[in-house]
Prior knowledge:
Layout: H1 3-15, H2 35-39, H3 45-85, H4 91-120, H5 125-150
Amino acid sequence: MIALPLALGSASALAYGGGKHHKDGGKHGCGMDDRGMFRALDLTDAQKDEMKTLRKANREAMHSEFAAHRSEMQAQHQKMQQLVLADNFDEAAVRALAETMSEQQIDRRVAMMKQRHAMMQILTPEQKTKYQELKAERMEKCQAKMAEKHGN
């Protein structure tokens, strides 16, 4: 019964940028960070400037969004703790909280995809093709690394 609230807390922390405390700083090659791949695309100076502007605007928006919802996140965390520590398990309350948190994560995911789409629009068709090739290579390496790590 404790697993759901703990899972929700973990998902919430990850959704808000937590969970990057790996010994290598979270840069393990299987993440969503595409900056290394963009460097390999031979962007023009104008494209680099556009990318930088987009990233800066997104970073500022994320910081203000996080600050605006900080008290809400704290309230959700407190609610999770109350539900976990309650004498009786209130499935309806847990589901309501889980749905709220899921909707918020969906909103964050949509915003992220919107930004990635905007970045892709800066690329030429040739750069997009090269990006897809690099992404496929990265996924293959990631899958091989995961298989090796998990003994598959």
